[in-house]
Task: inverse folding
């Protein structure tokens, strides 16, 4: 996998450049129609795609907007794990900023060229056209700042910044393709799979597809329940030392299964029989003594089994709903 | 309807009526002089909301909301979403979400996040039943009818495969064989 991200000033021709680069290199172009298809498969709608869009009014990050941004990111990451991509906008340069097999490009153009390009499709005065261009770029900049806390204008975020009005579209395409080839960013499926796994705790794509490494299959399925309810989670992100030797090295630790950052809550799920939980109980007691300010919720045997059954997570489910699938989490009708 | 599936009656019709009346009185006191919207979460809360509304003595508006469920079809992909939205404008008004039961709190947590963004003057929850042994998300429940143990309960809006909603009482369902 390799990723070419293309940020663009309004009316700089960035979309056209992206399209040509994708065609020239034989990569998938991620544009709105493709995203609409993908997120429909994930249960979102075009309207919700709008809420994740770069052109958004207001300065606050709405919960719905952030959730949708998270989800579109998940879809993009999922896609990136399967094939080489050209991604236009949507903060791709930040989403894949640490990915070694990525090339981050910004397409720019002089104000006059961009104004003329806009005036070819909209009958605007020079002043109105320039105001429109400034507004679009401002919204994109605000969107990046809100969702990634970064300055869109900072050249340090890009490997290449190209002026399409000076190089021309074909010139820009040639430079980008040569940079991709020189950097050998394409065709690294194996390496990128490892990268995705290492970065899994920070992004949500792997949640939908199943992160390898869950100790118990029910944990993976429980993660899907959290995804369904749009609750962000990290799997075993932190170990808490419980005992130390004389040199100060930890000799015993407790690693809760999940951390839910929005709730600042750790969850421990156990499928152990009650007779086998003595040691775990001891650890949890010690954890609560040593870390009284850390919120931890423990689901023991019966609680966890009913939770597993509640959501139909068991591989051999008992009678549907036997543990209670109505109420605030309703049965499918 | 198979009576064989029904176990212990947890709350009789009389107990429910009395408790709903108490909740209605408390809500009438707390929201006196304010503009209250009751939002029932479909389908389970419909029965409770109707009785609760009639036990409230102050002017209110009534509305309903429905959300998608997690189930086998959701396992491969999908996220919870509102499938029937409120029709009332709630910005600046007091909103009381009416639930039949709060369990893990996952759905209600999502619902409250979405509703909070619409700028209600206040946002609280009234639930008929509160089953907290599996609670993950702790929504702010201001009014609760009864606390229930970890049993599958049916009746008074609560169903098992769409059955038993129309019981006037709440009973546990017998454990599966």
Result:
């Amino acid at each position: 996998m390799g990723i070419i991200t293309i940020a663009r000033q309004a009316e700089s021709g960035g979309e056209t450049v992206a399209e040509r680069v994708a065609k020239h290199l034989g990569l998938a172009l991620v544009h709105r129609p493709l995203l609409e298809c993908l997120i429909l498969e994930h249960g979102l709608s075009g309207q919700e795609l709008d809420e994740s869009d770069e052109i958004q009014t207001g300065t606050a990050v709405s919960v719905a907007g952030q959730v949708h941004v998270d989800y579109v990111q998940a879809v993009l990451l999922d896609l990136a794990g399967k094939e080489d991509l050209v991604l236009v906008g949507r903060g791709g340069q930040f989403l894949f900023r640490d990915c070694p097999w990525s090339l981050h490009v910004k397409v720019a153009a002089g104000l006059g060229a961009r104004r003329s390009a806009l005036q070819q499709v909209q009958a605007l005065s020079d002043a109105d056209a320039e105001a429109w261009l400034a507004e679009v770029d401002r919204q994109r900049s605000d969107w990046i700042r809100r969702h990634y806390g970064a300055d869109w204008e900072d050249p340090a975020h890009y490997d290449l910044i190209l002026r399409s009005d000076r190089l021309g579209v074909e010139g820009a395409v040639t430079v980008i393709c040569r940079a991709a080839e020189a950097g050998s960013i394409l065709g690294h499926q194996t390496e990128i799979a490892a990268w995705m796994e290492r970065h899994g705790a920070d992004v949500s794509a792997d949640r939908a597809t199943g992160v390898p490494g869950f100790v118990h299959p029910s944990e993976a399925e429980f993660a899907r329940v959290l995804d369904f309810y749009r609750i962000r989670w990290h799997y075993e992100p932190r170990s808490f030392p419980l005992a130390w030797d004389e040199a100060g090295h930890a000799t015993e630790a407790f690693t809760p299964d999940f951390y839910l950052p929005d709730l600042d809550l750790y969850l421990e799920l156990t499928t152990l029989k009650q007779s086998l939980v003595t040691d775990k109980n001891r650890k949890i007691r010690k954890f609560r003594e040593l870390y009284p300010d850390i919120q931890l919720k423990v689901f023991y045997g019966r609680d966890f089994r009913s939770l597993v059954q509640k959501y139909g997570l068991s591989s051999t489910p008992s009678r549907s709903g036997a543990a209670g699938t109505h109420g605030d989490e309703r049965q499918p009708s | 309807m198979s009576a064989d599936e029904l176990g212990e009656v947890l709350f009789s019709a009389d107990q429910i009526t009395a408790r709903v009346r108490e909740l209605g009185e408390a809500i009438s006191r707390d929201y006196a002089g304010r503009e209250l919207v009751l939002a029932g979460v479909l389908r389970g809360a419909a029965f409770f909301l109707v009785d609760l509304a009639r036990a409230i003595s102050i002017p209110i508006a009534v509305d309903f909301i429905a959300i998608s469920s997690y189930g086998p079809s959701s396992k491969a992909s999908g996220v919870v979403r509102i499938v029937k939205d409120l029709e009332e404008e709630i910005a600046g008004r007091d909103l009381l979400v009416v639930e039949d039961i709060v369990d893990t709190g996952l759905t209600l947590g999502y619902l409250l996040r979405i509703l909070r963004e619409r700028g209600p003057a206040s946002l609280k929850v009234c639930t008929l039943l509160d089953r907290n042994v599996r609670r993950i998300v702790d929504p702010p429940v201001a009014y609760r009818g009864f606390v229930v143990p970890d049993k599958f309960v049916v009746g008074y809006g609560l169903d098992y495969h769409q059955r038993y909603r129309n019981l006037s009482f709440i009973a546990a369902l017998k454990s599966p064989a």
Observations:
- Residues 216-310 of chain A form a domain with the Endonuclease; Chain A fold (CATH 3.40.960).
